Amino acid sequence: MPTPASGEVSIRMRNVGICHSDVTLLGGDYIIPFGFPVVPGHEWTGEVLEVGTSVLKFKPGDRVVGECAVSDTAHFGFTMDGALSEVFLASTQWLHHLPESINDTAGALVEPFTIAYRATANIDASDTVVVFGAGPIGLCAVASAAAQGARVVIVEPQLNRHPIAMQLGAELALDPSTNNVADEVAALTGLRGADLVIEGSGHPSAMAAALELARFGGRVVYVGINPGAEVFAPLGLLVTKALRVQGNVGSAGIWPAALRFLERTGIDLAPMVSASFPLSQAVEALSAANDRSTNIKVHIHGERL
pTM for the full model? Predict the structure, then answer.
């Protein structure tokens, strides 16, 4: 059993989500340098077992979640051991209490939600938001934007994901292989265009199309990870539309606000979890997570005591 040092706690895992980054990590790739061996698991919720010296904010029995990008060069579950083990250690500097109203399944979705919450900042009911990709972060962006009153359009070629997006608040779901997305958005907005476009798929064609759908003076936020990809895009639109373009990786600094938002809005993110496996079947869980045509989010759960 790991023993917490000063400023640390030991945590029993409850739920851990498998991110596509975990799959690429297993293949030896990540956005910053890392080395094997490393324990993955950066989307999680757990229960505090033991606290180290000088720890006052947490006590045994507390349900907690924790941040991933703890510094520019240190990522929990990538460059340091993560949560995918029966018991693990974490620094209290990046831990947060999980509100009672958020269950363990939804708690393990807080990490992707914080990225989406950051991407959907500063919108309201006057805005139209277009989200490319109904993966976990894209679906979280739908939920966050809809809860803030915005009209939300999801663009996703996998039709089995459309009902989940609609359940989380999307007004319109479009298949880019059969719909002219630009025409649909233009019709919906009276030719104005989207106030905010969130690109969550990482697909080159979507990364380019995001610029075309944004209105004059609109915003485009890229959260889909596709490092090193070459994208042929109409960059002249940055000038002619006076666009504000932002890349978003990680979510440091906004976790307390995101947790309050989830608690007060009552958003239930659990419907996007399509499969759950015990820790003893982690290999099967990784295989299921790699089947993106079937699963949206796969969880691994710990033993319930």
Answer: 0.94
